[in-house]
Amino acid sequence: MIAMALACMNYRARLLIVGIGLFLGNVCGTPAMASQCADLLPGLRQDVARAVTAGDIAKLRDIGPIGGMPTGQSPLALSPDGRSIAFILTRAHPETNSYCQGLVVVDLRPDSVARLVDQGGELIRVTFQSEQRGLLTDTGIAAINQPRWSPDGTQIAYLRKDRGRTQAWRASVHGTSGTQVSHSPVDVEAVAWSDDGTALIYANRPSLIEENAKLDRESLTGYLFDDRAMPIYGDRPMIRGPLPLHYAATDIPSTSSSDRSATPAERTALDRIGPGMLLGRPLAASGPAGVEAWLKAEVPDRYLSPIRLWGKDRLGREWQCQHSSCSDGIIGMWWSAKHGAVRYLRRDGNGGSRLTFYLWTPGHAAPRKMWGTDGLLTGCLPAEDRLICAQEGSTQPRRIVALDADTGRSSVIFDPNPEFQHLQMGKVQRLYWKNPLGFETFGDLVLPANYPVGAKLPLIVVQYRTRGFLRGSIGDEYPIHAFAAQGFAVLSVESPPFFATSLKQGNWRTWKDAESENVKGWRERHNVASSIVAGIETAMATGVIDPKRIGLTGLSDGSTTAWYLLINTDLFAATSVSTCCADPKTDLIMGGPAWEKERRRFGYPAPTNDNPAFWQPISPAMNAARIKGPVLMQLASDEYLRALEAYTAFREIGPPVEMFLFPGDHHIKWQPAHRMAIYARNIDWFNFWLRDAVDLAPEKAAQYDRWRQLKLQRRP
Fold it and tell me: Is the terminal CB of the chain with fewer CB neighbours within 10 Å at N or C?
């Protein structure tokens, strides 16, 4: 599935994708056997009360991708009669390095039992076209695979990947297995029903075949080293995008194994959902008699332009909502027939920490505030005057609920992880603070369920989103509640708005135009790092933190912040990172020529210009002797080359260091066995360095022998 634009993403989500574009497999294991997937749907058995483990978190059943990536697409699909929902349920199995997946249907009534109408397939991952270079790169991020109901509500279409190829499938609502419909030579990226339900229309990019064939032919005479090159990936050039979408169709029931070209009318049916699914679409809501509401930028061509809520009344008059709650931060919008008004969901409160529902009637001055929550709601769909949403809390994994949108009262439709009701989770306290720039932000302090009163606890800091279930932070590599169960306090932080927002609005057309302001003097890095320091000080004010035993973690933008903190503060006794590094000899070279051009546009010096003053605040290699605490690096195989400069410097004059490479993985590590190994090693690492604790399992003896040697080599 290829996402060809990133217009709806916020700054740090963009930075994550930038990292993916630079750092970017099928899982190497075989598909899980039926017995291993027998528990895909939760059973009636309830676990006894016990502490949560890393294995519990690694094997969570998921509805949609984890981590809250901003796509605007719901993983849920509402039936035409509004009485049922369908979704893809996924569960990782680290033991086989595979996933169990199935298409699930649940009726929207309290006593409904979930039905598995198809089972099987591999994880579908997102392919992005990099904004920097226009190159297509694998992300490691799971795609949102929203099912599509037939017009009569008897069948469901969906995407399923088998043997490395994604095709369009369909299943009966009352069946137990699906049927492959498309026969595409490349991955299918979107599927929809024709308006009359007699055909399935799908989109793919067959030009990928010729592009790969061109590279194969070029390999016979040598690859030209140009903007397609990304050395960190290997010697094969990347494919440039965008590639054109092709529309095909299969008649239902199918009378042929070959697909045909879609008609113009059928293309329209797919366009209503396909490009919207791939690109994201502006928020809008429509009511009867032409009443509408939408979001509009005050200066359409300017990045960071204020966003306002607009509406049209029954007489066709357009109105701008002038109230402060009608500005930036609106993330959901639906029409309420009950109130004859638009219902919208907005981030507000300290640092945008809360979600609040409002009602507004176009032509009326002020919206009405309804209710709010500190939890996370995603993928909400209107069902009469209820909302069917994926809901999470700090100790509650994602589940599907029906919300009374006026009061916030909810009823559970489907809980994929009922076992978590019996697991002992950490105690969570929401904290708020400001950084020196005055930006408000927040974090969640998680303490062990039964920590001794008066004890001083070691602290682990994780970045850089803390909304919904506190799972493993950005990238899902740092199991927060499993850390707490081991005796750690954990501070899960939300990053502040990025630095450029503190400046007078410039004429920036894209985030890249504003990025040079962030890079100048490393002001964005100082902005985020100072916020984390303020968060640590807020946590220490609770009286439970040992200031000499603080650990630090980070992936992507969070990893860059971690290096900045290690270089510019003395707060941290141990560190684990998932990404590395911004060093002068490797940063601009290993990314390839196009990456170098982009970095120089942001204000980076040329590779031939040493410019130590520029690199000093951010380069781990240049500051190897300055960094004291031990460093663990767990890196994807297509990232580690950028870490070698720092790793070599650490081995020679720097802190104790250990580095692991994960083959076939990307910026977001998606393989279940890898994630489980990363979880376990992070727990062991921080236990060893911050708690002087070891796991006596015989298979870990060599690990602790190495770490004891590192401790002997540690500089004061």
Answer: C
Quick count: other Cβ atoms within 10 Å of Cβ 382? 17
Tell me, what CATH number does 605's domain have? Answer: 3.40.50.1820
For residue 530, pLDDT beyond 90: yes
At 562, is the pLDDT very low, low, confident or very high (cuts 50, 70, 90)? Answer: very high
CA dist 231 and 586 (Å) reads 11
What SS3 state is found at 549?
strand
Q: Residue 89: helix, strand or coil by DSSP?
A: strand
Give the pLDDT band of residue 219 (cuts 50, 70, 90). very high
- Residue positions annotated with a catalytic role: 556, 639, 667
In this predicted structure, the answer to whether residue 125 has a pLDDT above a threshold of 70 is yes
d(CA 163, CA 199): 25
Nearest CA to 534 out of 564, 491, 563 is that of 491
For 440, other C-beta atoms within 10 Å of its C-beta total 17
pLDDT given for residue 17 in this prediction: 39
Local structure of 235: helix, strand or coil? coil
Q: Is the peptide bond before 464 cis (omega within 30 degrees of 0)?
A: yes
Rounded to whole angstroms, the Cα distance separating 553 from 561 reads 9
The confidence band for 256, taking pLDDT boundaries of 50, 70 and 90, is low
Backbone angles phi, psi at 279, to 5 degrees: -110, -15
In a domain, 395, yes or no: no
User: Whose CA is closest to 377, among 386, 365, 368?
Assistant: 386
* Domain termination site, one of 246, 264, 281: 281
For residues 574 and 692, give the distance between their C-alpha atoms in angstroms, rounded to a whole number. 12
The pLDDT of residue 274 is 52
Whether 534 is in a domain gets the answer yes
Output the CA–CA distances (angstroms, integers) from residue 135 to 18, 130, 219, 243, in the order listed.
11, 5, 18, 10
Structure tokens given for 623: 């500051």
| Count of other CB atoms within 10 angstroms of residue 271 | 16
469: pLDDT strictly greater than 50:
yes
Which region, left, alpha or beta, applies to residue 363 given φ > 0 means left and ψ of -120 to 50 means alpha? left
The confidence score (pLDDT) of residue 255 equals 63
Give exposure, 179-189, as e/b (b: 16+ Cβ within 10 Å).
eebbbbebbbb
- Is 320 inside any structural domain? no
Residue 319 lies in a domain: no
Give the span between the Cα atoms of 4 and 189, in whole angstroms. 11
Please give the structure tokens belonging to residue 602. 């942001």
Four-CA torsion 583, 589, 593, 595, nearest 10 degrees:
-30
Last residue of a domain, one of 252, 281, 310: 281
Concatenate the DSSP letters of all residues of 481-500 into one string: HHHHHTT-EEEEEPPPPPGG
* Residue environment code for 492-504, b if the CB has 16+ CB neighbours within 10 A, otherwise e: bbbbbbbbbbeee
Between residues 78 and 30, the one the model is more confident about: 78
Cα distance between residue 614 and residue 390, in whole Å? 45
Number of domains forming the structure of the chain: 2
Q: What is the pLDDT of residue 121?
A: 95
The whole domain housing 96 covers 2-24+67-281
- Reported as half-sphere exposure (CB side, CA atoms, 13 A), residue 77 has a value of 26
- For residue range 324-344, what is the model confidence (pLDDT) as tens digits? 999 889 999 999 988 989 999
